[in-house]
Predict the 3D structure of the following.
Amino acid sequence: MLHDRFLMTESKKPLTILLASPRGFCAGVDRAIQIVERAIKRYGRPVYVRHEIVHNRFVVQNLEAKGAIFVDELDEVPDDRPVVFSAHGVPKAVTAEAARRDLLYIDATCPLVSKVHREAERHSDQRRTVILIGHAGHPEVIGTIGQLPPGAVLLVEDVKQAEAIDVADPLNLAYATQTTLSVDDTSDIVAALKARFPQIHGPHKEDICYATTNRQEVVKKVAPMVEAMVVVGSPNSSNTQRLKEVAERAGCPRAALVQRAAEIDWSIFGSIASLGVTAGASAPEVLVEEIIGAFAERYAVSVETITTADENMFFPLPRVLRETAAAE
Ligand code: SF4
């Protein structure tokens, strides 16, 4: 028996894993999760959360076990319980409805998404039509569009739409972007808008956040060096989906999005000798470890970290929860 186990270990093929850094949780996700945890500590169970606090099933299930109840809409929240708004941001109508019902609400919108909201409002105050570059139906896009009156924001998803968009006053235009887009695709869309509307106003740098940019940058470096790439994260996470696309475009022949080790489709990997691993901004490190562990059961794994940026971003908790944090 011992002899068999030894033979199995010996027969494992060597696999070099290049672990991308930065990867996984960003400051906005970390803050949003802490907000729910601290709200449960402060107000007791249950605390309601409108929409997935961040796009990761594992995170959501963990918070459910601690006392969070996730709902789609505000009318599912009872009058006497607190409600947290997700990191993606909410339309103004949602905040107004919470205030009208006198609900205790805590906004976990990432400060970098709130910054885009304020930009859109500033443009609108200056009577500019805002073109939002983003994905239709994504909660962040719904939240940003919902900062302004109906019709004040036009959505553009790709270069084709940018080239075709019809605007009433081409001299009074501005653009803003979703924070979790592909850096390269967005710069093409912005270029198409600027070619048609040279006077368009926009941010100094696009609104894509530091975490999205850094995770795409390191994937561009790792992807051409490996035979396959695993992106840890959920299919409904925009920044995670972009990492898979970036890996493929950077020349990695096989890129797979994986949520949990049990879901790995091993037929994709076969006889590879090198693998890149990264994680979307809403995927916890424990899942990266779980997935590397699953590879280590099948291959003789050695792990090397490839770092392209250091991150030390931190967003403070909302004031109402800071005392709970300080008391611990
Ligand atoms: S991905 Fe960027 S915008 Fe989204 S929560 Fe993280 S830091 Fe904020």
